[in-house]
Amino acid sequence: MSGHSQQETGFIRAALGHPAFLAGLLLTALFVAAALVSFVWTPFDPEKMQIAAKLKGPSTEHWFGTDHFGRDVFSMLMVGARVSIAVAFVAVGIGIGFGVPLGLYAAANRNSLIDEIVMRGNDLIFAFPSLLLAILITAVFGPGAINAIIAIGIFNIPVFARLSRGAALSLWTREFILAARVAGKGAARISVEHILPNLMNLLIVQGTIQFSLAVLAEAGLAYVGLGAQPPTPSWGRMLAEAQTFISLAPHMALFPGLAIVLTVLGLNLLGDGLRDLHDPRIRRSRG
Amino acid sequence: MNMSKSLAAVSALAVALGLAVMPAQAARTDISVGMVLEPPNLDPTGGAAAAIDEVVYANIFQGLTRFNSDGEVVPDLARSWDISEDGLTYTFHLQDGVTFHDGSAFDAEDVKFSLDRARGENSTNAQKALFAEIAEVEIVDPQTVKVTLSEPNGSFLFNMAWGDAVIVAPETADNNATNPVGTGPFKFGDWVKGDHVDLTKYADYWGEPAKLDKVTFKFISDPTAAFASVMAGDVDAFPNFPAPENLQQFEADPRFSVIVGSTEGETILAMNNKKPPLDNIKVRQAIGHAIDRQSIIDGAMFGYGTPIGTHFAPHNPAYVDLTEQSAYDPALAQELLKEAGVSELTLSLKLPPPSYARRGGEIIAAQLKEAGINTEITNLEWAQWLQEVFKDKNFDLTVISHTEPLDIGIYARDDYYFQYADPEFKKIMEELNDTTDPDKRTELLQAAQKKIADDAVNVYLFQLAKTGVANAKIEGLWENSPTQANDMTQIYWED
Asked: What does the record say about its membrane topology (chain A) (predicted)?
């Protein structure tokens, strides 16, 4: 027990000495906070139109100005964060939920026919341009947040499958696994009880990175009109709608653009930082 | 040596300067015109797309009659005509010296061929109804054609002015889709798919020759790109500019003139009249009262557009202003919904790509929500919209602009997408077709307008404005769009 808490103190100390990680954590916290607060409070109703007050620049009343229908851009960004998080969270969840079991299964049955089928299937999805297939899926099943989630989720499956298979393969050769096998545990039990816990750090790091990619993919799909449908605010669609107003009301493009950039940057920094902090070699060299 | 060298330099400079100045002195004789949509083909007798007429009407192809810029029907290939007492026989006297662009002569034979082809059984004409009353086309002599109708039709000359009724030559008719051959002042030059169509001046044109030597129609669907290309001077005129929000900026710029006029586009919130609960007139009326037309015009069109209360163009002399009948009144809307016994109403709202529909639809959704009606917006591409809404009628609400001139007759069509076809309205339309007396026609047209407003078939939103922008030195562009056309025949550059 005491060893565990010592490890935690060490982690916190290391984290405090890692400015990129802190910046990432801060940006991510802002993003999550905006989404959470939007459930109980936004400065204005994000769907309320006031045509007379359209295209107003930032002011004390409308912090980020208003859009072409006179809606409050700040409120829309807050609710848009919610959509981004929901889509990215479920999409990464799909990736982990399907990808990790597949990867572990393939590693447990390495070099078997099943391993081949699983990994070549992954290659197939990998080889296909991801956004193109996402557009295909939403074009066939109709635009909407749910289909965007499924489309992005499918692309996360091979990422996690490959990652967990690779890591699991090297674990399978370790002595403690051998010990578990000698003790008579089956492959499935070893995968869940011994391999999965050792993959956790890796999955958290990759999950953070994939989360940022999913936020970006959602914005991209919404930009071409295949994400959440109006009137639900969505960052990508806000950016698309701002295009023709760029000379009249640049704030309409600036703020959603900044929101996407900062969120993706924040998640990437966080992911990188987590990797550094979990890697004992890097930690030691920094210490 | 030195002297001659500098002389040479000076003269070279003078030549260079002269060359540089020359084009500015002589007025330009070419123009590039921006269009949002590319035509699927270039045969106006074989396709419904407005973009076809926007390239070829009056430029390449001509009909017996034509619309002028005010929407009046004036003589074109028919120099004049006589109408018999009973209104059944039209004798057209054709222009002399007309040739097709392939050099062949135009005569009564071509007129008979074109009309028979358009009304024939195998006709692929998108507006076959225009020719429905024609019983027989006879050649009296090479310059005279007699058309006999099965019943009087007061709009026959109007019908013959449509782009779908242009005269084509039998030898070239089948290739018009890719290589149009007509009798107009411009002949077809080149078509680079996805980019542009070129027209060049036809030297042997029978009438007043065009002032331009070359016309290029460029297809730019993205509003941002359209804005950039006008600003950069890549296109000289954009008669239907897709982003009304940018017009202010053009207006402030002395290099450009902004041309705002009217079109034949009645923009409506179409309702599926046979689908419950929209089959209940009270629900339809409630939707009408829940909508504030002016804020849609302001919010979606930046103030360009005229509110309408029925499916009729306000610039038409027969127009009746019925906007008050469905004036914005959310309280009344809720009252009507209660009377209809409808609560917790959720309707689908399917929107095609044009910005009037996408933006207007969002505003409508917000307004309906305030009146207690929820909507589910789906943005569709054109092909999807045509299939789901127009063909399959799988929708509750949609926003669309009907841009054909004087098209109130669509309300009499059986099985049309908004599914009205009321027998009483059909009777008014039948009577209208049998009437040639102008006063009586006006009366009937007004009765028709009132009937569809009383029945609250659709919500009539606004008349689409023609918002164009052009280089300030271009003269002769149409201000209004009485038909789908970009008439280039009168256009010239000011010095």
From this structure: Multi-pass membrane protein
Q: How far apart are CA B34 and CA B229, in angstroms?
A: 9
- Distance in Å, alpha carbon of B395 to nearest chain A alpha carbon: 15
Q: Tell me if A11 is assigned to some domain.
A: no
Most B CBs within 10 Å, among A44, A45, A50, A51, to test the B interface: A51
Among B230, B358, B362, B369, the strongest candidate for a mutation testing the A interface, having the largest count of A CBs within 10 A, is B362
Find, in chain B, the residue whose alpha carbon is nearest to that of A233. B362
Number of structural domains (chain A) is 1
Nearest to B223 by CA among A185, A244, A37: A244
What pTM did the predictor assign? 0.78
Cβ of residue A262 closer than 8 Å to a chain B Cβ: no
Inform me whether the C-beta atom of residue A51 falls under 8 Å from chain B C-beta atoms.
yes
What stretches of B26-78 show up as alpha helix (H) in DSSP? 50-56
Mean pLDDT to the nearest integer, B148-169: 92
Task: Name B216's bridge partners.
Answer: B32, B198
Contact B218, B32 (CB under 8 A): yes
Nearest to A230 among B248, B298, B377 (CB): B377
- With CA atoms as reference, the chain B residue closest to A242 would be B224
- CB nearest A225 (choices: B295, B366, B379): B379
From residue A18, alpha-carbon distances to A10, A202, A273 in Å are 13, 19, 7
Q: Does A69 touch chain B (CB under 8 A)?
A: yes
In a domain, A284, yes or no: no
Q: What ipTM is given for this predicted complex?
A: 0.75
Handedness of CA B326, B331, B332, B337 (dihedral sign): positive
Contact B283, B347 (CB under 8 A): no
- pLDDT tens, chain A, 287 aa long: 445 566 667 778 888 888 999 999 999 999 999 999 999 999 999 988 888 888 889 999 999 999 999 999 999 999 999 999 999 999 999 999 999 999 999 999 888 898 999 899 888 888 888 778 777 887 788 778 888 888 889 889 999 999 999 999 999 989 999 899 899 888 899 999 899 998 998 999 999 999 999 999 999 988 888 888 888 899 999 999 898 888 889 999 999 999 999 999 999 999 999 888 877 665 555 54
Structural domain harbouring A128:
19-42+62-279
**B60-75 pLDDT, tens digit each:** 999 999 999 888 899 9
Is A69 in Cβ contact with B359 (below 8 Å)? yes
Chain B residues with CB under 8 Å of A248 CB are 245-246, 248-249
Residue A95 lies in a domain: yes
Query: Which of A51, A231, A245 is closest, CB to CB, to B299?
Result: A51
Average pLDDT in the B473-485 region? 90
Q: What phi, psi does A47 have (nearest 5°)? A: -100, -5
Residues of B in contact with A224 (CB under 8 A): none
Residue at B454: amino acid letter: D
User: For residues B358-388, b (16+ Cβ closer than 10 Å) or e, as one string?
Assistant: bbbbbbbbbbbeebbbebebbbbeeebbeeb
Q: Which is nearest to B109 in space by CA: B143, B60, B149, B157?
A: B143
CB proximity B430 to A under 8 Å:
no
Span B231-253, pLDDT tens digits = 999 999 999 998 888 898 899 99
Within 13 Å, how many C-alpha atoms sit on residue B30's CB side?
11
Flag if A143 and B378 touch (Cβ within 8 Å).
Answer: yes
Domain CATH for A243: 1.10.3720.10
CB B149 within 8 A of CB B135: yes
